[in-house]
Amino acid sequence: MIFGPGERGTPPVEPLTLKILVAGGFGVGKTTLVGAVSEIRPLRTEEMLTEAGRPVDDLRGVEGKRTTTVFMDFGRITLREDLVLYLFGTPGQDRFWFLWDELATGALGAVVLADTRRLEDCFPAVDYFERRSIPFVVAVNCFQGAARHPVEAVRAALDLDEDVPVVLCDARDRESVKQVLIEVVRNTMTRPSDHRAGIAT
Question: What is the DSSP letter of 94?
């Protein structure tokens, strides 16, 4: 093996690995977000929507949706050589919320993805992370044709504390999603150390 100058005996960098949840309402773009940014082929647990599910799956605003996540989405992104994020997308429908506690175990922070056309759909995720003191960022997914609202208007509508970041994003765009994740890491690292249960080395 050939070593460059100063490389002999240099120990490999052991990256910090952080678990981040991606939550939000049904059809808001969680699977799309994880897939857009993951450097590995994302794990998806999607099933086709059926007529039997129509009474419980509210398709208003997402009439073209054909599949739904029934457990989780999983992806990975290396933000720096020494920082790797593992992304866990939660299912959006009410009947799968019992899975959230398992997915949230060890999470350092979270993204709450919001659609301003159905803003009320992200209330349960906001409440969940507030009750468990898991730092989170609200990312407004800017759907084509949806009205753009100032972040302060979104903050007021969701009754968020001032220390909860609100950002605009395009869940289809890798660079846009990366900026959201950077904000999640920045937000969690400014919190007291007892909130950092998701850190593993």
Answer: G
CA distance 38 to 41: 7
- pLDDT tens-place string over residues 111-132: 999 999 999 999 999 999 999 9
Task: Give the CA angle between residues 158, 161, 163 to the nearest 5°.
Answer: 125
Residue with tokens 């992806």: 75
- With tokens 């070593």, the residue in question is 3
pLDDT tens figures, 162-175:
999 999 999 999 99
Residue 193, classed as helix, strand or coil, is: helix
The token pair that represents 173 in the structure block: 């765009």
H or E stretch including 109? strand 109-114
Partners of residue 85 on adjacent β-strands: 18, 77
The tokens for 101 are: 């506690």
| Distances, alpha carbon 71 to alpha carbons 15, 22, 96, 161, in Å | 27, 13, 7, 30
Q: Is the pLDDT of residue 158 over 90?
A: yes
Listing DSSP states for 43-72 in one string gives: EEEEEE--GGGTTTS--TT-TT--EEEEEE
pTM: 0.77
Which pLDDT score, from 0 to 100, does residue 193 have? Answer: 54
**Confidence label for 146 from pLDDT (cuts 50, 70 and 90):** confident
If you search the block for the tokens 């997402």, which residue do you land on?
62
Location of structure tokens 């460059």:
4
Among residues 71, 67, 161, 63, the alpha carbon closest in space to that of 117 is found at 63
